[in-house]
């Protein structure tokens, strides 16, 4: 994120586990930032095109990310709401990983395309697919900051461990500036006793890393947790954000507060400018 005037920070919403709340978080945090007056761009990097549909847009079309990744064309964001632009996804994106397999600069194409539009925005959010493949690596190469949406189950911690390994690898090779902002707890059920233990484990882990030079040395578990709220699950089928679909629902209050918390941590992080390296990671 950035103050008006400096180029946007790029935030990747990542978790290789499916159905944890990445798209719900990315779309509604982007919408909340836009409502706060921040010029925001959402990049849908998932061939499921859920973020595109959630914002009421058509997958593919002139704003698709596909020609940028495969043919090196410039991004063509399209406005979907005041202060909110979209670069859409399409099902062909699934083929992009194969099409790009032999391109030397494949991990850097997204980063380069974003560099050309960063000055137009305060925040650029990337909704990633549920995998650690080339598209996610491209997002980690293009981003300065990572947000990890997760559901607080014990098994989810293993997945976050694997994700942090990947982030660490990308930070030590392709993108030394990469920092983890924190974890958004999604679809929180206050009656589930183990949530507190999972969150405590995560916070212990992040606290232990404070003195180290790891990408997550400033990471937090964001508050509030996003409550399970049926309105959040209904909104995508109407092509609306929670703020347009049910502005008084608990889901709207939670994402407004989480977006403010993310913005505060993002703004507070020093702007580390380290040139990306052209190392190879994915073969
Ligand atoms: N707080 C919530 N309350 C109720 N339902 C939710 C909540 N958060 C997400 N959901 C629902 O859970 C499902 C999965 O969420 P979402 O699509 O955001 O996950 P995802 O991580 O992007 O999935 P994928 O890995 O397939 O991209 C969706 O149907 C969504 O509407
Ligand atoms: Mg998704």
Task: Walk me through the structure.
The protein has helices spanning 22-35, 50-54, 66-71, 93-99, 109-115, 134-142, 154-172, 194-208, 230-234, 242-245, 250-268; strands at 9-13, 40-44, 78-81, 84-87, 123-127, 145-150, 179-185, 220-221. It is globular, with a radius of gyration of 17 Å. The protein is 39% helix and 13% strand. It has a domain at 9-147 and 230-268: Rossmann fold, CATH 3.40.50.300. By secondary structure, the chain is an alpha/beta fold. The longest helix is centred in the middle third of the chain and has 19 residues, at 154-172.
User: What proportion strand?
Assistant: 5-15%
Q: At the first level of CATH, what is the class of the domain at 9-147 and 230-268?
A: Alpha Beta
Distance linking N and C termini: 31 Å
Q: What is the CATH architecture descriptor of the domain at 9-147 and 230-268?
A: 3-Layer(aba) Sandwich
The geometry reads as globular
Whole-number radius of gyration?
A: 17 Å
Question: Which key phrases capture this entry?
Answer:
eight-stranded mixed sheet; 283 residues; alpha/beta; globular; binds adenosine-5'-triphosphate; disordered C terminus; Rossmann fold; binds magnesium ion
């Amino acid at each position: 994120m950035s103050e008006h005037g400096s180029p946007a920070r790029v935030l990747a919403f990542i978790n290789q586990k499916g159905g944890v709340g990445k798209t719900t978080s990315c779309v509604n945090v982007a919408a909340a930032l836009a409502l706060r007056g921040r010029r925001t761009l959402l990049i849908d990097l998932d061939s499921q095109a859920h973020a595109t549909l959630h914002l009421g847009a058509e997958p593919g079309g002139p704003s698709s990310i596909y020609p940028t990744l495969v043919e090196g064309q410039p991004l063509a964001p399209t406005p979907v709401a005041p202060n909110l632009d979209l670069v859409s996804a399409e099902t062909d994106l699934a083929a992009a990983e194969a099409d790009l397999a032999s391109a030397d600069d494949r991990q850097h194409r997204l980063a380069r395309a974003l560099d050309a539009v960063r000055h137009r925005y305060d925040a650029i959010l990337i909704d990633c697919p549920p995998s650690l493949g080339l598209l996610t690596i491209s997002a980690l190469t293009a981003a300065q900051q990572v947000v990890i949406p997760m559901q607080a189950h014990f098994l989810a911690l293993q997945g976050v461990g694997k994700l942090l390994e990947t982030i660490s690898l990308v930070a030590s090779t392709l993108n030394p500036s990469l920092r983890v902002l924190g974890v958004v707890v999604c679809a929180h059920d206050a009656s589930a006793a183990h949530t507190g233990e999972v969150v405590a484990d995560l916070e212990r882990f992040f606290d232990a890393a404070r003195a180290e030079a790891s990408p997550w040395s400033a990471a937090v578990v964001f508050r509030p947790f996003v409550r399970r709220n049926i309105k959040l699950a209904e909104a995508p089928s109407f092509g609306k954000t929670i703020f347009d679909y049910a502005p008084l629902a608990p889901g709207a209050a939670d994402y407004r507060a989480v977006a403010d918390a993310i913005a505060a941590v993002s703004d507070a992080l020093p702007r580390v400018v380290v040139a990306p390296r052209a190392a190879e990671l994915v073969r």
